[in-house]
Amino acid sequence: MSDVETGPASAVGVPPVERAIRLLRAVADGDPVSNMSHTARTLGINRTTLMRLLQTLEAERFIERRPQGDGYRIGLGLVGIAAGASYSQDLVQTAMPVVTHLAESAGLSAHVGVLDGTDALYLVRQVPNVPLASNIHVGSRVPAYATTLGRIIVAFWPEEKIDRVFGGRTFTAYSKHSPRTLAAFKTMLAADRAAGLAWSESHYVSGVSSFAGPIFDRTGEPVAAVNVTGPAQVFSAAPGRRTHIGEAVRAAADEISKRLGHVTKPAAVAAPTRRRTA
């Protein structure tokens, strides 16, 4: 087989990426690559390149050996990415009407986001028709410890997971409120968890306040969060205004969780004490 790659190429594509995609499509379509020479000819990839692609994709778990050991099949790494993308779309579709109502009723920018590594990733943004709307856009990333959206998700993680994910993280100070160490971050998370909401006033941007509530899936895992942000004075415009906004965020988070299949367990009721009679 010649070392020249003969497969179709896009005028704007990246050839190595295109070869990997062609190979993944072939495996997904049922070619186990048990005959490497045949697959190389079919895809227009030289045999050496094909071997390297197989090794790389297997290392990344995009493909895996078939149980009988002859050839390959699509791996759990690629399946997980596809499932995550599908889940994100479901989350966005599920949350959108709730977030839209929250933004309009509260008069504040409302968002839904998830965690990606140690960052909060914004998936939904709805802004009311008012001045000073949030400048956070869909696709924005903010360190989880610096935003209520990220904090309230991490607040419901097991401690060992918090240690594993954030143990080596450098905590950059965005304000005097920013945690500088993992211990300080965990103290903040404990308060968020106890309240069931994460609150911020000038923690990330001076003069901007925020509330966030956790979103749980059907298994009870914290998979996302919803928050509102806006000028600090909006949260204190009237007596009880801040409490009202916090409860609206809590209700929105609960509603999205229910739509994802989460069922809140009722609180246990103590059995009545029987009175002794003489």
TrEMBL record:
Superkingdom, taxonomy of origin: Bacteria
PROSITE patterns: HTH_ICLR, ICLR_ED
GO biological process: negative regulation of DNA-templated transcription
Domain called HTH iclR-type: residue spans: 14-76
A GO MF label: DNA binding
Domain IclR-ED: 77-262
Keywords: DNA-binding, Transcription, Transcription regulation
One Pfam family this sequence matches: HTH_IclR
Protein name: IclR family transcriptional regulator
